[in-house]
Amino acid sequence: MLSNDSAEAVVTAARESFCPGFGVSMLCGKIVWLMQAPVDHDTHPSVAVSAQLAPRPRPATHRVTVWPVVAFWVGAALLFAVGGGLNAVRFGDILLHARGNWQNLSAFQVAWLATALFFFACGIISISLALLLTARSAGGFYGSLLFGLLLTLLAPLVGLLTPEPDYFGALCAGLLPGAAVLFTLASLPAFSGD
């Protein structure tokens, strides 16, 4: 802040440098007024503008969705139900050819019934997991991980132990439940908020 003597010196210097006239006295009066006005605000406009233009933190509204995992388990439940139904029909056909005589059936033929029951059980588990995940239950999260890992182990193993192994089928049977495990792990933040 300049004193009154130095402010008058500035006004005098401004008058001498400009042509005398009405505009110069108005200009000098404004300069003196600006020099004597108290400053209560930030004198660096770039700081004030940058504070206004700075990005504001957004509220945490980004929700992690569990719908890819739910869709996978609903689809798996449908596939298990169809597979169980087809295996039950195949076992029924085998049983009709044997004329209802269980003693004449080989272990491989009885395996069709066991496979049908296993597929129906997996379908029930899959739809239960989908319902638990929809409710964002921790049991659904851990159940999805465990069931996905179990299917990742068992499905390719069964595909490779058949008399005529199907390597492509075994690969797909292992990758699909593995994808469910990855989808489940990706949805972990949806369960940590509870």
What does this structure look like?
The protein is mainly alpha-helical. It has two domains: 1-38; 67-192, no CATH class. 75% of the residues lie in helices and 0% in strands. The chain has eight helices and no strands. It has helices spanning 4-17, 22-36, 45-53, 67-97, 107-134, 138-161, 167-186, 188-192. The model has no long low-confidence stretch (mean pLDDT 77).
Write the layout of secondary structure elements.
Elements: H1 4-17, H2 22-36, H3 45-53, H4 67-97, H5 107-134, H6 138-161, H7 167-186, H8 188-192
Provide a concise account of the structure shown.
With 194 residues, the chain is mainly α. Helices cover 75% and strands 0% of the residues.
For the record, the count of structural domains works out to 2
Strand content bin: under 5%
Kindly report how far apart the N and C termini lie. Answer: 59 Å
> Strand-and-helix sequence, N→C?
HHHHHHHH
Looking at the structure, what is the overall shape?
A: elongated
Radius of gyration: 40 Å
Q: How much helicity do the residues have? A: over 70%
The stretches of 5 or more residues where confidence is low (pLDDT under 50) are none
| Quaternary structure state of the chains depicted | single chain
Count of individual beta strands: 0
The tally of helices reads 8
Keywords:
single chain; 194 residues; mainly alpha; 2 domains; 8 helices; elongated
